[in-house]
Each structure stands twice: as structure tokens, then as C-alpha cells.
Amino acid sequence: MILSELQENEERYLMRTYRRAPVEFVRGEGAILWDAEGREYLDFLAGISVCSVGHCHPDVVEAVREQAGRLMHASNLFYTEPMVRLAERLSGSSLGGRVFFSNSGTEANECAIKIARKHAHRRGVAEPRIVSFERDFHGRTYGALAATPKLAEDEALGPMLPGFEAVPLNDAEALRDAVDESTAAVLIEPIQGEAGIYAVTDEAMLAAREACDAAGALLILDEIQAGMGRTGSLWAYEQTPVRPDVLTSAKALGDGLPIGACVTGPEAASVLEPGDHGSTFAGGPVVSAAALAVLELVDDPALLRSVRERGAALRAGLEGLAGVRELRGRGLMLGVGLEEGIDAAAVTADLLGRGLIVNAPEPETLRLLPPLTVDDAQVERAVSLIGESLLSYATR
Ligand code: PLP
Predict the structure, then answer these.
(1) Which of 4, 95, 221, 288 has the least C-beta neighbours within 10 A?
(2) pLDDT digits over 273-292, tens only?
(3) Which residue's alpha carbon is at the smallest distance from atom 10 of ligand 1?
(4) 3-state SS of 24-38?
(5) Furthest-apart CA atoms within the chain: distance in Å
(6) Distance between CA 344 and CA 298 in Å, rounded?
(7) What is the pTM of this model?
């Protein structure tokens, strides 16, 4: 099928939930994608922070091939080794408690919300509340959606799950005021991704931790976009002054295969009991084998150092380009704030035409999430393409 046929058939057979760019990708390797016409693109979005060790990394492909040829599914009624090994690896590299696997980020957050509510009920809270930051994004299933204030406003999808509220990003005082005895959890992104790359300040992070401790609530960090090496440490919280009680991961964990995880520290490790939660596919042998291969590659001091160095080089290159107002983020999670009047969506489309993939999470921001394995030459190429594109917009 050629692109125009794909577009016609998509219009006919697929629900209209996505606005896609007019390109069909057929192959990927490292930071490069090829379209159906054989044209090459430098991928500085990595499937929205998913293909972090690059497209089709040979270790991940091999792990999937090997496991798919042996056993793909047995159900959660039985033991399978890759899942247990992955849980041990994830717990050991983070909070030290127990793990629940899911098939996506939103489901990892559903698990965290269940843990928080049950944990609060144990303290005798009848109507537990969950506090997030305005413009946080936690997913699209109803629990995570209720914690995603911008989307939860949509009355056409209502009624929403009760007990969720939001305070302005980094307003430490508002956060302290919002958390009381009835609070089950503070659920926040350490760096807001979908909103346009806005980091939580150390002050606000500490306020969240202290307020949770005082109220007996859980601090849940959604590291679905910012975790797994993206900011230059395995987990984003490592570069903050706090340690959460629960963290959620997904996206880069499977490098393109669907897997999420809700990881607890000791406090929350035993809240869920048999019958409280479950999922048919979650933590299956193939996705777990893939995630183990990914963790092996990402949880490596040399790779994490490279993320910090390439991130600094990317920042240095973008700083001072015509049309760039500010740079936000950490490591290889960068938001490029554009000068007023430059439409980020138009720049994104222009860059796609020039062979560079980025996206525009808000009208004045370009988001860059390249594979963590990106090299110096690719960073230089991206900077030069962004410079050329912005120059043409800044002078229009
Ligand atoms: N949380 C964050 C921070 C995200 O960025 C996303 C997806 O963009 C999600 C949750 C939802 O993940 P998924 O799309 O896998 O359900």
C-alpha cells in the first residue's frame, strides 16, 4: 500500500484518535528511521521516549527472538523466569520493594493509584484524595486520566473518578496546603513531559516529600517519560533531594515492546494482595526478556555519562540559535522554548521535511528526546538542521 492508500484506509477503518504526520516508516536502526521511499530520518523523538537504546538494538532483538521461539505466554497463574528476574533487577536498581508489571504507562499508574487508595483506607481514610500538579500527564485510562487535570476537564468523557486535585507546578505552599490527613498520595512527574518539559524544583519536591510524610501519604513519581536513563541517571529522582515511595515506569523499559512497571519501596510493597489487581499479558516472557536486555544496556555508568555529555552538547549547540528563547530539561530530555511568533508545530513539520524528527507538545515548544545512544555527529546534525529551520522562521 502506498501512503495515500494508507491514509484513505486509516480514515475508513481506524478511530480518529490521532493526527499523524504524512510519512510511513518501514525500518529503523539506532537513531535512524527510513520511510517507505527509502528516505532517511534522524530520530530525535525515539517514539516519544520509547526507543532509548535505539531502534532495533541487536541485544534487544536477540532477546526477543530467543524468548519468542521458546515461550511467549503462560499466564500469571504460573511462574516464568524473565518476569521474576526483571522484577529483581528493577527493584534492586530503585526502591527495593515489590513490582507489579503492566502493559503500558497508564496502567502502571492505575496500579499506583490502587496502592495509594488502599494504603489510605488502612489508615482509616474514607475518601482518599490524590494531589498532582496542573499540566501533569499520567495517562488516559480513567484513574490516570483523573490525575491529568487538562484532560480530566473534558465533560464529554465524564463523570471523572472523584478525589483528584491539582495545584500549580512548583507552588510548594499550595502543595503543602493541599495535602492533609485524607491525602492518599502526591502523584507527580519529576519532569513534565507532555506539558513541554518543565522540571519540578528541588523546593517543591522536598515540600511534596515532607507533606506526604506528615500526612502518612505516599509520594508517587511518574517516571514513565523521564526515567530509564533519559535524564542522565537511571531514575530522574536520583537527581532530586527525595526518594519516592512508589515509582512508575513504561515507555523506554521495553524499547518498543509494551511493558510498564509500578515499583514500590518497603512502605508500599505489601499493600496489594491476591485478587486486588492483575492483568493477562503483563510481565509476559517476551516483553520481560526485552526489558531485561534494555536495563542491562541503560543501567550502565558509561551510557549514563554519555547521556549527560551528549545532553550538554545538545544544549550548548542550541543555545544562542536564532529563534530559541530558552532551554529546559535534563540530560537528553530537552524542551526548546521558541521566541514568540514562531509556531513549533510548523517548525516540526519543516524539520520532518529536512529529515529530523522532533515534536511540538505545546505551540511554542519543540521537544527533543533522542535515543540515549545518540553520537556526537548526530547531535551536531540535529543542531544544524534546527538552526537552519529556525533561521527560516525567525526571518519570515
Ligand atoms: N505518564 C507519563 C509521564 C507519560 O509521558 C505517559 C505517556 O506519554 C503516560 C504516563 C502514559 O503512558 P502510556 O501511553 O504508555 O499509557
Answers:
(1) 4
(2) 999 999 999 999 999 999 99
(3) 138
(4) CEEEEEECEEEECCC
(5) 63
(6) 31
(7) 0.98
Residue 202 in contact with residue 241, Cβ under 8 Å? yes
End-to-end Cα separation, the chain, in angstroms = 37
Strand partners, 223: none
Is 137's C-beta closer than 6 angstroms to any atom of ligand 1?
Answer: yes
Task: Answer yes or no: is the C-beta of 222 below 6 A from any ligand 1 atom.
Answer: yes
C-alpha cell at 65: 527472538
Gap between the Cα atoms of 296 and 315, Å rounded: 27
Q: Does the beta carbon of 138 sit less than 6 angstroms from any atom of ligand 1? A: yes
Question: φ, ψ for residue 324 (rounded to 5)?
Answer: -90, 120
Ligand 1 atom with the smallest distance to the CA of 251 is: 15
- Which residues are CB-contacts of 6 (< 8 A; sequence separation ≥ 6)? 24
Question: What does 317-349 look like in DSSP terms, one character per residue?
Answer: HHTT-TTEEEEEEETTEEEEEEPTT--HHHHHH
DSSP helix/strand/coil, 130: strand
Strand spans (E) along the chain: 25-29, 32-35, 40-43, 99-102, 129-133, 164-167, 183-188, 191-192, 198-199, 218-222, 246-249, 260-264, 324-330, 333-338, 356-357, 359-362, 365-368
Name, in order, each residue with C-beta under 8 angstroms of 159's C-beta and a sequence gap of 6 or more.
none
| Nearest partner of 385 among 310, 312, 309, 314, judged by Cα | 314
CA distances from 334 to 45, 198, 238 (A): 10, 9, 18
Query: CA 181 to CA 39: how far, in whole Å?
Result: 57
| 162, 152 Cβ separation under 8 angstroms | no
pLDDT tens digits for range 175-185 = 999 999 999 99
State whether the beta carbon of 299 lies less than 6 angstroms from ligand 1: no
